[in-house]
From TrEMBL:
It comes from Streptomyces yunnanensis. The keyword DNA-binding applies. Residues 1-69 form the HTH merR-type domain. InterPro entries: DNA-bd_dom_put_sf, MerR-type_HTH_dom, MerR_fam. This is MerR family transcriptional regulator. Keywords: DNA-binding. It holds the Pfam family MerR_1. PROSITE patterns: HTH_MERR_1, HTH_MERR_2.
Amino acid sequence: MKIGDLARATGVSPRLLRYYEEQGLLTAHRAGSGGHRRYAEDAPAVVGHIRALLAAGLTTRVIRELLPCVVGPGPEFEHCAAGTLREQLRGLEDKITTLQDARSALSGILATTVPSEGHEG
């Protein structure tokens, strides 16, 4: 499959597909005298997995670790992904807690702000 075909099949730009390749997430083989990229038939599914994992907030480094554990079109994961996924979820929960604490603090500060005359807040 050529890069343009993969881009059309997935809705992902050729530039982004090349980035995925640079990050070790997607494999292409050079074919012909022009050295054009050719992707395997499962490349659209792999791109779908990458997009789903990015949407879950994972970095390309973490996705590179997880891709060998993907099975099926879902994606579903083999047990080898469980530890990494749990670690990422804990990190996300910690960030959420930090943001909620910051929101509460900011809300408290705002509540103590005295409106200036002639302005409503």
